[in-house]
Amino acid sequence: MNWCGLLNVHKPAALSSRQVVDRVQKLVYPAKVGHAGTLDPLATGVLLVCVGPATRLISRVQQGRKRYVGRFRLGQRSDTEDIEGQIVPAGDWSGVTRQQIEQLLPEFLGSILQTPPQISALKVGGERAYKLARRGVVVDLKPRPVEVFSLDMTDFKPPEFELQVECGTGTYIRSIGRDIGERLGCGAVMSGLTRTAIGPFRLEEAVTLDSLNMAALATALVPPQAVLPELPRRTLGSNEIMAVRQGQSLSCLQPDTHDPSRTVSLDEERFDPKSKSEIMLTDATGAMIGLALPDISAHCLRPTLVLSALH
Fold this sequence. Notes:
Layout: E1 5-11, H1 17-28, E2 33-36, E3 44-51, H2 58-62, E4 66-74, E5 76-78, E6 87-89, H3 98-104, E7 110-114, E8 123-124, E9 127-128, H4 129-134, E10 144-157, E11 160-167, H5 173-184, E12 188-198, E13 201-202, E14 207-208, H6 214-220, E15 233-235, H7 238-245, E16 250-251, E17 279-282, E18 288-295, E19 300-306
Parallel strand pairs: 1-14, 3-12, 15-17
Antiparallel strand pairs: 1-3, 2-3, 4-11, 4-12, 5-6, 7-10, 8-9, 10-11, 12-13, 16-19, 17-18, 18-19
């Protein structure tokens, strides 16, 4: 079977994202498998596993907005910024109120600068920060711009509180808790994390690892075109599909009159040749062939990603 698509998996606690990928790999071998957006073993929730040619979409999937529910414990610090690290007492939390935390939340909304955790997958000089940290190397990680679209407190049972977060790629939820704890003067570590959504993929639609077998996977696998539902589309005829798979550009002005199998030239409602955003290229059934960018000066579409090339 030629596997191709995305699998929305409900990752359980105590497993790494890599271990989830390995389980899927056993079912679809020799197809390629990868995941979009790492979840630490402590975390649960939506883990998108890309299968076959859909692994080429990983970087696009990672750009989608993400939603989380994070729990935090006041009065502690740790080297990992969560309860799985070396925890030390940080300060008296007994006087902290719900109102105090809620008053701080606007500071972490919008475009903000965030210093990543010392133990993270970021590369420093070609090596992962967490590997350097484990050797005792203190890394000077510079603050980076991230986007936080919404941030709401959903529970407060001292010394723990809970936040619901919608954010862009590269945002560390544990670092939000860390910074709130520092502003309160008592420290805070993340005690739990659930990712509830990535883009259009929701936790309530995710499949569990225990339920996965060949039949269940075939049913649950989402086609690649569902990943980027907001993109305008152009339907290609057979000659154009062959051209794209050979890396050739397409005219974005005239239909291919030499291709009788062509059913749609342009989707006039959704496709604007003057647009600077990517366009999804599909076949007549709606299956994704690839992505392209308009080249206004050359009046053509230049492929930026092709799901499968000719062999």
